[in-house]
Write a structure and sequence with these properties.
150 residues; alpha/beta; Rossmann fold; 5 helices; 39% helix
């Protein structure tokens, strides 16, 4: 995979309205170019680890950031977070939990597993768009990720 075609953002979101808001907010911030969408935890893991329908995709072609919902079908976000952060090939990928859950146990468990940021989704579009724009600007433009040897 050519570095110029690499996915910059992996969005793991199963709620169509939240996905649409996230995509609109990224587009508004001019960060909507190279995005991959996974609609459940199993699809996200297949993409990240180059399995299933994504077999042959190099695990070293990691996204710059993963926006991860916690309440997902098939495999929940906590398990996706656990698997990504426990694998040496993927543990340096920044993961931002973007969820409606304010439950303290979810926040604590996410940080225990190595999440980089935990954001509770704002209910109105302007607040949501602002949050997505700021985190996109930070993770895509300012953050300096480690180089991963492939």
């Amino acid at each position: 995979m050519n570095e110029n075609n690499a996915v910059e953002i992996l969005i793991v979101e199963d709620t169509p309205q939240d996905l649409e808001l996230t995509l609109r907010a990224l587009k508004k911030a001019k960060l909507g170019n190279r995005i991959q969408i996974a609609r459940d935890g199993a699809e996200a893991l297949d993409f990240i680890f180059g399995e299933g329908p994504y077999s042959g995709r190099p695990v070293t072609a990691v996204p710059k950031v993963i926006l991860l919902d916690l309440k997902l079908p098939k495999i929940d976000g906590i398990e996706v977070l656990r698997r990504v952060k426990s694998d040496d090939r993927t543990n340096s990928i920044p993961i931002v939990v973007l969820t409606s859950s304010k439950e303290q146990k979810d926040v604590v468990e996410s940080y225990r597993l190595g999440v980089n940021s935990y954001i509770v989704k704002p209910v109105n579009f302007d607040g949501f768009a602002g949050a997505v724009q700021e985190l996109g600007m930070y993770w895509l433009l300012l953050n300096q990720p480690p180089k991963i040897d492939g």
